[in-house]
Structure to design on (815 residues):
């Protein structure tokens, strides 16, 4: 979804049933099969449609099948005819009476009685002449009923019989005569109404009822889109999208969230059960997007078909058709082969090898056609198996892979489709479910697409983005990762087609727009990626409060932000539980020690059965740098401003000076070590004087010199006893009692914590296995490079886990 779509979607969401642009919604028979189904459809219309939209309907449930059966009984003069008619009439009456108030029900009931009378008359006298008229009752009843229900419960709605305006000029090709149909429709239109139109039926230029063939209602919907210049068509059906293979047979199939028009058309041509070749014909220009969504679960994002950028074009799918005929003839070599392929709309054809693949029912016609050309033909029963994707015939690597996966099969030929969007293998045996699964696995196993959203483009965020293009190029685990979102506190740039990581910041400068939480939520709920990772590099408590929503959507979170990991215990536990329930990964290695592997070390000890009883050290890069550097020659506040400039402090350095940042880190590590405690359980010495507490960051920085006397005094006192001052975090457990404190301490110069490189962190861990001689981890604990590097390390871990399809949640660094 582009930013434009995003904004538009939000506008739509806030303007349900408001006067707006026309969209077309089509509801299939299964979506309208019962009272309960129709109630669901009414809810969908309430939430997703607007006045002036067009609703196209199929016949309720199995009504068309019942009408076919009735027609057949009449032809065969079967004694079951009366009973079948009564059953169908009763079924329609039940729907009418259960959904409408008494007055409307009586009105529709009387129409139904009239229709049944008419049907019986046609059935008793030349039923063949009225075949299409009889079938048309299904859509007629369905549209009349739905429009009445909408009128009663939702908004003004009118009912239109498509035969009153929709004219086809050639029955075989189902070509629409738009020059008659469009003005005919417009003349009947009522402004500020929903229009409910019968699918499947139309008339010819002699005003004879015609049907639009198999799945004609989908075609009706796209015709209505072309007639009304609609922006979107949604096919509400009983499946929730188009999959990379038929999900009934291929459990590993993935939903294709976005399909380029040409690829969708090719899938329809090669027998995709949801898409049909004619359906896409009226949308050939690609401007109107087609959505496939489930009326049984409308909140689940379906498949969008239209014009897309590069990313959607990388998707591959696999489809097959059994019970076909391979026709081989010398005549098919050269131009005649091409002509035959076009004449019979062959599933595939190769004029160099002289072959075409057709459906069984076409065999006779092909024989006759060839007889006219006086040549011989050999017919062989075959099946086809195809890999379908945007311009796939030009992708040598994909074709090679496809051939490799089929090397043990009896492949008669591998042919490029004329469209360029599929490579088709002709098999001498039917395609088995096992073969379909194997080929699908091989062709799509690397195709999991992961979206990346980066929140926070400050000191660390910018460095993270600077490193991203190189990381994407050199780390195999990031192969299918796409930067799709960037945000700061004020603006966001979301582009589902991907944001070029090499120009991320300038693209953000040029195209970012204001956003709010509702907009973000709506996008996050409908994003088209298999997985989405949000990297939180903000210092914002408010942003951390979105994690619960992220986890509910199965989104993964990597954070440098410490708020969520140090939240009050009930909240923290709720986040862990929600992440686990939805297989969301939550990693926050950089929340303590920046890029140092302290979280991993603690987790590893715990996992291996060790028990930690003490964690202490210098956890703040800022305070480490300040106290290691401060010797009284330069005022403390000058050093503080210097640290801010170097990017090692928190955005507001009082977070460091107050000990709050260290307090959070100690809590995060104690939790990682398996202890349950909250921030209040960690005693904290605040080094910010009261008078500087309530100021804005800018005011504080302007008045920072007020802290100098305090630190000068502390330093001088320490010097008199050959000691030094350091801000130390200490956590220990003795006899089950927890003690946790962060404070300024006066240390002997020989103390392990007294002599570290400025800005380094030092972590000392005592445990069952490290009692006398503690485990020490030491190194740079703050700064742009190491923190951004640590975030990239978490990113690779998440992507690797996703590639390995680990079902178990791992919340590294925070568990
Ligand atoms: N400086 C360091 O060495 C380390 C920093 N961190 C953490 O990294 C985070 C970022 O630090 P800096 O880059 O120094 O901060 P910064 O102040 O330079 O940048 C913060 C960014 O977050 C954005 N932001 C703020 N609130 C937002 C919201 N509600 N929604 C979206 N974006 C929002 C801001 O617009 C800005 O782009 C902090 O949580 C910090 O604790 C973690 C480890 C080390
Ligand atoms: N200000 C912090 C930055 C990282 O969390 C520190 O000094 O460690």
């Amino acid at each position: 979804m582009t930013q434009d779509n995003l904004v538009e979607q939000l506008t739509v969401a806030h303007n349900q049933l408001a006067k707006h642009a026309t969209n077309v919604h089509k509801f299939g028979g299964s979506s309208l099969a019962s009272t309960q189904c129709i109630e669901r459809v009414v809810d969908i219309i309430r939430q997703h449609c607007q006045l002036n939209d067009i609703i196209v309907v199929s016949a309720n449930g199995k009504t068309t099948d019942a009408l076919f059966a009735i027609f057949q009984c009449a032809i065969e003069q079967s004694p079951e005819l009366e009973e079948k008619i009564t059953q169908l009439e009763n079924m329609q009456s039940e729907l009418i009476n259960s959904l409408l108030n008494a007055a409307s029900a009586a009105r529709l009931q009387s129409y139904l009685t009239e229709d049944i009378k008419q049907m019986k008359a046609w059935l008793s006298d030349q039923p063949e002449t009225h075949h299409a008229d009889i079938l048309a009752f299904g859509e007629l009843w369905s549209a009349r009923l739905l429009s009445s229900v909408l009128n009663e419960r939702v908004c003004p709605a009118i009912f239109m019989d498509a035969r009153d305006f929709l004219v086809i000029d050639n029955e075989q090709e189902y070509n629409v005569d738009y020059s008659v149909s469009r003005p005919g429709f417009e003349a009947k239109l009522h402004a500020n109404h929903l229009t409910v139109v019968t699918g499947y039926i139309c008339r010819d230029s002699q005003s004879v009822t015609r049907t639009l063939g198999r799945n004609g209602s989908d075609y009706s919907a796209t015709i209505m889109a072309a007639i009304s210049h609609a922006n979107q068509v949604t096919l509400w059906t009983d499946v929730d999208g188009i999959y990379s293979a038929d999900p009934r047979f291929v459990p590993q199939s993935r939903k294709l969230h976005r399909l380029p028009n040409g690829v969708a058309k090719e899938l329809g041509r090669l027998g995709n059960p949801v898409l049909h070749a004619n359906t896409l014909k009226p949308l050939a220009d690609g401007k109107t997007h087609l959505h496939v969504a489930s009326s049984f679960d409308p909140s689940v994002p379906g498949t969008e078909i239209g014009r897309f950028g590069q990313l959607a074009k990388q998707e591959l799918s696999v489809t097959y058709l059994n019970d076909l005929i391979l026709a081989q003839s010398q005549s098919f070599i050269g131009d005649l082969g091409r002509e035959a392929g076009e004449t019979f709309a062959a599933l595939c054809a190769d004029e160099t090898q002289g072959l075409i693949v057709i459906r069984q029912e076409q065999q006779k016609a092909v024989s006759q056609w060839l007889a006219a050309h006086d040549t011989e033909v050999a017919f062989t029963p075959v099946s086809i198996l195809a890999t379908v994707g945007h311009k796939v015939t030009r992708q040598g690597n994909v074709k090679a892979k496809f051939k490799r996966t089929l090397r043990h099969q009896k492949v008669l030929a591998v042919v490029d489709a004329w469209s360029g969007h599929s490579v088709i293998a002709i098999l001498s045996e039917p395609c088995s479910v096992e073969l379909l699964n194997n080929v699908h696995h091989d062709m799509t196993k690397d195709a999991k697409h992961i979206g990346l959203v980066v929140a926070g483009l400050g000191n660390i965020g910018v460095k993270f983005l600077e490193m991203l293009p190189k990381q994407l190029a050199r780390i195999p685990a990031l192969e299918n990762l796409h930067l799709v979102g960037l945000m700061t506190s004020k603006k966001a740039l979301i582009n589902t087609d991907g944001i070029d990581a090499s120009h991320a910041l300038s693209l953000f400068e040029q195209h970012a727009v204001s956003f709010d939480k509702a907009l973000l939520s709506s996008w996050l709920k409908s994003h088209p990626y298999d997985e989405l990772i949000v990297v939180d590099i903000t210092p914002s408590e408010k942003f951390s409060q979105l994690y619960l929503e992220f986890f509910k959507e199965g989104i993964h979170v990597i954070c440098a932000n410490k708020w969520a990991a140090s939240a009050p215990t009930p909240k923290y536990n709720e986040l862990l539980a929600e992440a686990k329930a939805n297989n969301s990964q939550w990693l926050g290695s950089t929340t303590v020690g920046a890029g140092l592997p302290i979280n991993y070390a603690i987790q590893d000890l715990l996992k291996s059965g060790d028990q930690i009883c003490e964690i202490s050290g210098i956890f703040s890069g800022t305070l480490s740098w300040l106290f290691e550097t401060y010797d009284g020659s330069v005022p403390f506040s000058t050093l503080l401003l210097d640290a801010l400039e170097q990017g090692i402090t928190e955005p507001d350095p009082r977070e460091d000076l107050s000990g709050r940042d260290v307090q959070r880190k100690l809590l995060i590590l104690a939790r990682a070590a398996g202890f349950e405690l909250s921030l209040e359980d960690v005693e904290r010495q605040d080094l910010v004087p009261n008078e500087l507490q309530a100021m804005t960051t800018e005011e504080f920085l302007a008045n920072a010199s007020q802290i100098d006397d305090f630190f000068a005094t502390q330093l001088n006192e320490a010097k008199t006893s050959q000691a030094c001052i350091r801000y130390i975090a200490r956590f220990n457990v003795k006899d089950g009692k927890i003690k946790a404190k962060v404070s300024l301490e006066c240390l002997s110069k020989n103390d392990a914590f007294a002599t570290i490189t400025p800005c380094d962190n030092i972590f000392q861990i005592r445990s069952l296995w490290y009692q006398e001689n503690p485990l020490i981890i030491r190194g740079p604990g703050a700064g742009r490079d190491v923190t951004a590097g640590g975030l990239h390390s978490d990113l690779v871990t998440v992507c690797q886990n996703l590639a390995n399809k680990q079902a178990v949640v791992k919340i590294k660094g925070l568990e």
